[in-house]
Amino acid sequence: MKLQLVAVGTKMPDWVQTGFTEYLRRFPKDMPFELVEIPAGKRGKNADIKRILDKEGELMLAAAGKNRIVTLDIPGKPWDTPQLAHELERWKQDGRDVSLLIGGPEGLSPACKAAAEQSWSLSALTLPHPLVRVLVAESLY
């Protein structure tokens, strides 16, 4: 099984790159983990947010391909460490690769939410999306 983190946003702050890379380095060799960055749509005063979300979602789903899709979303299911370990084991037994989706500033598109087999909530708090990358990498390694 291969894990893939599909996240909206490119040019992350150095601390995000450093933290993510540190946890990526610690991953077991038998569980490859990759990051796919989706460029965020341009947001401005008159931006069509629905269109931007739809485009970001389209790109995220294309990157995920036929993988199991798990969204990172506040209304998702909170997993403690033993529950996450159980989910990882289930995913391994399933045999498919897994794509974890992190949306942009407005979250995930309806298409991403509809395609998800599971939705995982890291916290009831709204977390900065760059921080979520680091938290997910740490939680999974």
From TrEMBL:
The keyword S-adenosyl-L-methionine applies. It comes from the Bacteria. GO terms for biological process: methylation; rRNA processing. Keywords: Methyltransferase, S-adenosyl-L-methionine, Transferase. It holds the Pfam family SPOUT_MTase. The keyword DNA-binding does not apply. GO terms for molecular function: methyltransferase activity. Its EC number is 2.1.1.177. Belongs to the RNA methyltransferase RlmH family. This is 23S rRNA (Pseudouridine(1915)-N(3))-methyltransferase RlmH. The lineage of its organism: Bacteria, Pseudomonadati, Pseudomonadota, Gammaproteobacteria, Enterobacterales.
